[in-house]
Amino acid sequence: MRILFSLLFVCFFKFSGTAKDPVNYVNPFIGTSNSLRPSIWEANGGAYPGAALPFGMVQVTPDDYHYDQKYIKLFSVLNHTHGYPKGSSGGFHIMPFTGNNAEFNRIGSTFNHEKETAIPGYYSAFLEHYRINAEMTLTE
Fold first, then answer.
1. DSSP string for residues in 83-105
2. How many domains does the chain fold into?
3. How would you write the pLDDT of the chain (140 residues) with one tens digit per residue?
4. Would 2 be classed as within a structural domain?
C-alpha cells in the first residue's frame, strides 16, 4: 500500500508542474476577423486584441481593428466598444509617432502581424512608418 501511495504521490507532483495557467490558453485575436459562422451580429469580427483587464475602465487597443487590415491609425484608451455594428472603437485617442506635428492629419502607420503581440493585459505592434515599437500594458 505504501508503494502505491508513494507512486501516486510522485506521479502527481511529476505531472502537476506541466500544467499551464488558464490565461496561457487565451488567444486575443479570436473574433478580430470575419467568421465563417455568422451570429446575430453577422460575421464581421469587431473584437479588439488590446490590453484589457476584466471589469477594467481602461482598454488600450488599436481603434477600428480588423485582422485583415495592415494599418493602425490610432489607439483608443477609454470607453471601448466591442463588436458589431460599430466594430472596435473607443475614446481618448493616442498615437506614438516621430516627426513634424504638421503631419497630424496623416498620422498612422502600417504594421505587420509578425511583429504584433497580444496576450491578456499586453499588446504591442511595430509601427513601420515611424519605426516605433508601441507597447501597451495594464495592471491592477
1. STTT-SEEEEEE----S-GGGGG
2. 1
3. 554 444 444 444 445 556 678 888 888 888 788 777 666 556 666 677 888 776 666 788 888 788 888 999 888 887 766 655 555 667 788 888 887 766 666 778 999 999 999 988 899 999 998 899 999 988 77
4. no
Q: What is the number of other CB atoms lying within 10 angstroms of the CB of residue 92?
A: 12
Q: Which residues pair with 58 in a beta bridge?
A: 78
**The residue to which cell 482598454 is assigned:** 59
123: domain range?
A: 21-137
Residue 129's CATH number: 2.70.98.10
Angle at 15 between CA 11 and CA 19, to 5 degrees: 155
Q: What is the pTM of this model?
A: 0.73
Handedness of CA 47, 113, 117, 110 (dihedral sign): negative
Domain annotation covers residue 1: no
Among all chains, which residue has been given the C-alpha cell 497580444?
Answer: 118
| Measured CA angle at 62 (ends 135, 133), to 5 deg | 30
